[in-house]
Amino acid sequence: MSDKFDVIVIGAGPGGYVAAIRAAQLGLKTACVEKWVDDKGSAVLGGTCLNVGCIPSKALLESTHQFHNAQHADVHGIQVGGDVSMDVKAMVARKDKIVGNLTGGIAGLFKANGVTLLQGMGKLHGGKKVEVIAADGSSTTYDAENVILASGSVPVEIPPAPLTEGLILDNEGALNIDETPKRLGVIGAGVIGLEMGSVWARLGTEVTVLEAMDDFLSAADKDVAKEAAKIFKKQNLDIKLSARCTGTEIIDGKEVKVKYADAEGDKEIIVDKLIVAVGRKPQTQGLLADDSGVNLDERGFIFVNEQCQTGVPGVYAIGDSVRGPMLAHKASEEGMMVADIIAGHHAQMNYDVIPSIIYTHPELAWVGKTEQELKAEGAKIKVGKFPFAANGRAMAANDTDGFVKLIACEESDRVLGVHIVGGIASELIGQAAIAMEFCSSAEDLQMTVFAHPTVSEAIHEAALAADGHAIHMANRKKRK
Ligand code: FAD
Ligand code: NAD
Question: pTM above 0.85?
Answer without folding.
Answer: yes
